[in-house]
Amino acid sequence: MQPASVIWEKSLTILKEEMSDASYRNFIQGLIPLGIDDGNVFMLSLPREKNAYGYSNELQLTSLRHVYMETIARIVSNVAGTELTVRFNEPTADEIEMPPMPDGYCECPSLIRRYTFDNFVMGESNRFAYAGAMAVAKAPAVAYNPLYIHGGVGLGKTHLIHAIGNYIHASNPCAKILYVPSETFITDVITSIGSNTREQLRDKYRTLDVLIIDDIQFIGGKQSTETEFFNVFNALHNANKQIIITSDTAPSAIPLLSERLKTRFGCGLVADIQEPDFETRVAILNSRIQQDSLDVDEEVIKLVAEHVTGNVRSLEGCLNSIVAYADFTNKPITTELARNVLKDFVGKDGSKRPVTLELIRQVICDYYDVTVEELESERRDQRIARPRQIAMYLSRSMLGLSNPAIGEFYGNRHYSTVMHACDQIEKKLKSDSALKSNIDDLIDTINNNKN
Ligand code: ADP
Ligand code: MG
After folding, report:
1. Which one, 65, 138, 293, 412, has least CB within 10 Å?
2. Spatial distance between the Cα atoms of 355 and 248, rounded to a whole number of angstroms
3. pTM (2 d.p.)
4. Dihedral sign, CA of 123, 125, 128, 130?
5. Which of 126, 312, 436, 447 maximizes ligand 1 atoms within 8 Å of its Cβ, making it the mutation to test the pocket?
6. pLDDT tens readout for residues 402-428
7. SS in 3 state form for 340-384?
């Protein structure tokens, strides 16, 4: 057989003719032939250099595996004159050559790269927030400052603010951009007080070009954190640096937040995101299918979009369940199969109960196998105390209720107990991925509760 490099050279000519210019350039051109394993596996490696500014090769690898694999196998087999399969290798970290970075280049490790404007679907429900986000991304600190986006769980707030960060980073690689969940800010403040390192805290936050802070509602009522944030806000704002904030409610409705912060938060652009309408849900599902190269019928998409009406996270969760179920049972994705999976997501007529304190309590009791009496009791053993803390945390984060109201509901407890419970869970969430995934499950169950 001819050497792999020769087979590849000849295959490239054919591939170039068969494919669009963009696909050839983006996915094929940089591949490196490594050899032929076991006489029939044609090994290709992804390019050694990363894309500009260090974007990962994940997208390229997914596209190669799902879209181009068969074409490449067919062509290399024809050229070699024998049946070959194709395998892609990722270069190891030390094989990757990074392109030179501009002077002053800033890494932005806090940004999630896959959250971009390209894969964010705009519809009626998020049009205003999207437009505001785009304006800020194109002209940071000029368009709107701060940009404040609010809306319920799973509606795309976090995605959108990372998209802004990624956009600014791509157009200005020297910009210092930091994304933090507000819980991180709270911990930073507590640590700086405990270890007397206020200067470092100021260095971290006040020297930024763009501060993106997610779920700000958690700082309400935490006095030292509020004061510190007030100072950070003013320092950045006065220096013409962009501040981007999300929350589950409008500034004026954040429980226990001081008036001066409410005023500051509302002084730029306040935009909300609503639950997506039917057309947007269809568009989001279609976009997901395209991204993951899934083969799902239009009828199935419509069925899912009709029945899963709450938030985007549930919509994606439902689609994933259908795909996984079909995969697992080795069946095609039909509307009948989708209907079966959907039963777990919505009530028979597709309607859902609104999220209430009672509903959250019931889901927690079912999930952790505890009773309402136990939750309301004085018992402090972990079997009861942890579900109680999580119930309080979810009541606050999903309903935005005040600590006293939640305390009263759970056995007439003092509001400081609720505050402590929420603090505990927020702290744990940072390092405990099992807890995080349990809580995501619970949120999904609560949002998709059946009648
Ligand atoms: P939030 O921060 O509001 O709770 P997220 O940003 O975490 O919500 O969104 C939940 C999931 O839904 C993410 O996977 C996100 O990519 C996806 N998502 C939300 N809105 C959209 C949208 N308009 N287009 C595409 N994906 C979306
Ligand atoms: Mg979020």
Report:
1. 412
2. 14
3. 0.63
4. negative
5. 312
6. 888 899 999 999 999 999 999 999 999
7. HHHCCCCCCCCCCCCCCHHHHHHHHHHHHCCCHHHHHCCCCCHHH
